Amino acid sequence: MIKQTVINEMNDAELLDKLEVEKVGLIKMKMGHQISPLDNPMKIRVARRNVARLMAEISKRNKTK
To answer: Whole domain around residue 31: which residue ranges?
Structure first.
């Protein structure tokens, strides 16, 4: 899980890079889970929430510009 304080300290480029990495990881996890169940399916929820946190921070920053 990515803490909000860490997200706040990232610059815009780092946020976009991290978002792309998290999205790819989430897609791979979902696909893998469909083929054979994950040991801990809660990882999907954590990854989905990380993506949402990053997207929320990006949109918040874009509103203030």
So the answer is: 4-64
Query: Residue 3 — very low, low, confident or very high, per pLDDT cuts 50/70/90?
Result: very high
Q: CA-CA distance, 30 to 9, in Å (whole number)?
A: 29
Give the whole-number percent of the chain exceeding pLDDT 90: 95
DSSP-assigned states of every residue in 13-48: HHHHHHHHHHHHHHHHHHHHHHHS--S-THHHHHHH
C-alpha pair distances (Å), 34 with each of 2, 14, 30, 53: 25, 30, 6, 25
Please give the tally of structural domains in the chain.
Answer: 1
- pTM metric for this prediction: 0.91
